[in-house]
């Protein structure tokens, strides 16, 4: 049986992140509380999670315009996806021949997302997170045409802006960054209330809207 791995991070880095205990009970991380928290990992080791966190931060860094991948807990989103059916290619046709095809045909090779990430982590090296920012950028630039980097970039964006029930977009900071209000089906009731003035509702997640935790595909048995 694999030893359980955890990612230790400052509470302030992921304030508002909704997490779940091993028993499936929800708890929300408060940015006002001091100290560190240990987030259970499903796929990465703690060392791997720190490498991916650093790489995602270079792709979507925090700056004067707002928070980045670290604050949005993007690494938790990626960890959940790789641990679930997506990471093991449960729903992709994976029999040969494995050939380079037209871009519109999508990914046609043999390696699963899990295998692509494992190779990418080896290429980045264990000490990537400790490198100066310029050295990290140089290393990522050298591999930007690789399947790993393309996948990592896509997953970083997904983790910034996906519904937080999937692990990223902590505290809805990604949606606040772009002004997205959440998956509300209709605003008909708000039209007369805000006629002639900008309407900027506070973002709400799917769980907040429906009042329960939706079933997640990454929680499926692989």
Poorly predicted runs of 5 or more residues: 20-27
Number of strands: 4
Amount of beta strand: 5-15%
The helix tally amounts to 7
Instruction: Using the CA coordinates, give the radius of gyration.
Output: 19 Å
Question: Please, how many domains?
Answer: 1
Order of strands across the biggest sheet? 1-4
Mean pLDDT score = 84
Globally, the shape reads: globular
Structural class of the helix and strand makeup? Answer: alpha+beta
Report on the architecture of this protein:
The chain has 222 residues and is of the alpha+beta class. The chain has one domain (5-219). Helices cover 32% and strands 8% of the residues. It contains seven helices and four strands, in the order ββββααααααα. It has helices at residues 46-59, 74-83, 113-124, 133-142, 147-161, 173-178, 206-210, and strands spanning 5-10, 18-20, 26-28, 36-41. A two-stranded antiparallel ribbon has the order 1-4. Strands 2-3 form a two-stranded antiparallel sheet. A hairpin with a 5-residue loop joins strand 2 (18-20) and strand 3. The longest helix is centred in the C-terminal third of the chain and has 15 residues, at 147-161. It is globular, with a radius of gyration of 19 Å. The two termini are 16 Å apart.
